[in-house]
Amino acid sequence: RIAMEVTEGAVTMEVPEQSGEGIEDAVFFNTEQELNRDLTVAALRAYRDREPRAETYLDATCASGIRGVRAAADGWDATLVDRDPAAVELAETNLARNDANGDVLHDDANAVLWDPEDAYDVVDLDPFGTPAPFLDATFANARDMVCVTATDTAPLCGAHFDSGVRKYGTVPRNTEYHAEMGVRVLLSAMARSAARFDVGVTPLLTHATRHYVRTYVDLTHSASAANAAVDELGHVYHCPECLWREHESGLHAARPDVCPNCDGRNLLTAGPIWLGATHDDAFLDAVRGHLDDDMGTRERAADLLDTLGDELDRPTHYDQHKLYGRWSEPAVAMDGFLAALRDAGHAASRTHYGGTTFETDASVAEIRDVAP
Ligand code: SAM
User: Fold this and answer.
1) Ligand 1 pocket member 108 (CB < 6 A)
2) Which fold has domain 318-370?
3) 152, 161 in Cβ contact below 8 A?
4) pLDDT at position 1, please?
5) Is the CB of residue 9 below 6 angstroms from any atom belonging to ligand 1?
6) Rounded-to-integer distance, Cα 68 and Cα 90, Å
């Protein structure tokens, strides 16, 4: 296939032409993931400041190699893996053309990840669709940080319910905060997988952008840290009729029979999902400080980090348009809306999930009372 050149960050890569016949068989490359990759490079820098002994980076499902090559060009001792021989060849070409040091292995990611002789400080998973089949092998041996991209948003958010249950071993529910449901289902599966190996996860940075979820978790190797992560799991009860919801920590679910707000009887239970924080504010600041002018998405990435930093730490968000739709009233401008909530004594913030989404500690009835 005809190759084209793409410059991203400090590297120039050869990737397959992105349209036309045969594209399905070509080595994968998606220009839309540039934001994800720019943030990866900045997050790796921020992580190295925090954990200076971290040196080795495994791009476990590398395709063209763009992530691993960018990490290698940034000083990481990078290993790139793919089971597709065409991807391996392309990744080797790309490492060489950027004078970046690294190894490319033609292997199954799980075989590499399960090998304790080959443990890596940072492991990055970006397979097609769900990362679930790689999580146990990843947490068995990864030392410091695990980064995961999941593109199977329909199973994650409960729109493909059975698939979500199978892949993530939890109950996802399709609500109007679907991207956040996806984030919390993924983190739940990661926390439970890590706990099998007495490893605790602490989310450093997580974002749901377009059709994927991306998260970076710090690892602590102790049974007590694993217990602490499991303690962050719990359930959300949700009324699809009036959008009332409540969350409860713990692995036992005790959903009310009727919705306390509208007496509806169709309450849903989601969980166990991750109810805890999905990022660390100091880490967000550090990542922001490591964005640079080579990065094509620098401004978007900085905006995203700012929004994440302002986001209230609550497990579910509301969509103002959906609420006003329920109430058969026209929506209002977000700033005035949030100001009304705050004036009434509630905490309220925008979220990165969408332009009309917000987090608040107000109940749906309290929102209704103060909404302009
Ligand atoms: N990280 C790349 C990027 O940023 O452009 C994209 C990776 S692409 C979505 C997924 C890659 O994972 C494909 O090249 C595929 O061959 C590879 N892959 C899928 N399952 C694998 C496995 N079990 N072992 C190794 N590679 C695998």
Assistant:
1) yes
2) Phenylalanyl-tRNA Synthetase; Chain B, domain 1 (3.30.56)
3) no
4) 57
5) no
6) 12
Give the ligand 1 atom nearest the CA of 134: 23
- List, as one string, the DSSP characters of 170-209: SB----TTHHHHHHHHHHHHHHHHHHTTT-EEEEEEEEEE
CA of 349 to the centre of ligand 1 (A): 36
Please give the CATH number for the structural domain made up of 3-310.
Answer: 3.40.50.150
- Rounded-to-integer distance, Cα 372 and Cα 363, Å: 16
The pLDDT of residue 20: 72
Identify the pLDDT of residue 2.
Answer: 64
Q: What is the pLDDT of residue 239?
A: 97
Residues 6+ apart with CB under 8 A from 263: none
Q: At what angle do helices 66-73 and 85-97 cross, to 10 degrees?
A: 30
Residues of the chain with pLDDT under 70: 1-2, 22
**How confident is the model at residue 372, as a pLDDT?**
83
Taking the C-alpha atoms of residue 170 and residue 312, their distance in angstroms, rounded to an integer, is 25
Q: How far apart are CA 116 and CA 154, in angstroms?
A: 34
Query: What pLDDT score was predicted for residue 17?
Result: 81
* Residue-range domain boundaries for the chain: 3-310, 318-370
Element (H, E) at 138: helix 132-141
ipTM, two decimals, is 0.99
The Å distance, Cα 220 to ligand 1 centre, comes to 27
- Residue 94 Cβ < 6 Å to ligand 1: no
Distance 212 CA to ligand 1 centre (A): 15
Mutation test residue for ligand 1: of 83, 88, 147, 151, the one with most atoms within 8 Å of CB? 83
